[in-house]
Amino acid sequence: MQNVLEISNLSIGYSGRNGGDTVIARDLNFTLAQGEFVSIVGANGIGKSTLLRTLAGVQRQLSGQVLINGKSIYSLTPQKLASSLSIVLTEPLPTRNLTVRELISLGRQPYTNWLGTLTENDKEAVESSIRNTGLEALEHRKCYELSDGQLQKVLIARALAQDTPIMMLDEPTTHLDLYHKVQVLKTMKGIAREFGKTVIYTTHEIDLAIQLCDQMLILERSGHHFGPPCSHIENQSFQNLFPSDLIDFDSGTGTFKIKN
Ligand SMILES: Nc1ncnc2c1ncn2[C@@H]1O[C@H](COP(=O)(O)OP(=O)(O)OP(=O)(O)O)[C@@H](O)[C@H]1O
């Protein structure tokens, strides 16, 4: 499989007003191949969203490299970047006054003319992302009429309509019930498989990620681990993810258990 995203010696964080940097994670090294379904996991505040935003070029890295197909992400024009990767963030929408279909159609912006006219190809991409996310019944509803979970699906559909080789999603299943979490994750994995897209998302649902992902990036204060879920289980990498006073990772079932 061809490597699409190469991260080398990456340090992420925030530049202070007086010039000092706050480093959130350093020396990150991993590579994502075409068609892989990948999650980023770790405790609250460890840097999952910061990393995702850095990988997407939404915020600058402190040092190191993020390469998409061998080219630095920061050298790409906004147009090229928008046709290379889509990102679903947790920030609220600027407007919820659009219908579901209109919002999903915005995903086609990198390809439309300045009037935003949709071609047959654009319309087909919108149709198929509505179908793939099961939003047919909601397509004419206004976004302000949706529940948080329904809106989350619409944002995923917009990213799907963008039809980029790389998709990045920040906690895409937070507001969904268990059934719909699995439905959305399986849809995303299916898209990775069927269309050879690389999908990377942050999550707190480690059990589901273990069952579904090809690769997992585990962020910890002491460093990071990257590899397939089974190698993390073998290497006991989940054991140190959280303080051990309340929960333990059970390698046999691949789940966290509450301590008695
Ligand atoms: N704009 C910012 N400026 C400075 N520090 C920030 C900024 N945004 C986040 N941080 C800090 O960076 C660290 C990592 O935050 P981040 O949101 O990436 O973590 P996370 O792993 O996604 O957390 P969670 O699981 O709670 O969503 C936190 O300590 C946070 O306070």
UniProtKB/TrEMBL annotation:
Keyword flag Ribonucleoprotein: no
Signal peptide: none
GO MF terms, alphabetically ordered: ATP binding
Domain ABC transporter residue range list: 5-246
InterPro entries named among the record's database cross-references: AAA+_ATPase, ABC_transporter-like_ATP-bd, Metal_Ion_Import_ABC, P-loop_NTPase
SUPFAM superfamilies: P-loop containing nucleoside triphosphate hydrolases (SSF52540)
Keyword check for Transport: yes
This protein's UniProt keywords: ATP-binding, Nucleotide-binding, Transport
Entry-linked PANTHER family: IRON ABC TRANSPORTER, ATP-BINDING PROTEIN, METAL TRANSPORT SYSTEM ATP-BINDING PROTEIN TM_0124-RELATED
Designated name of the protein: ABC transporter ATP-binding protein
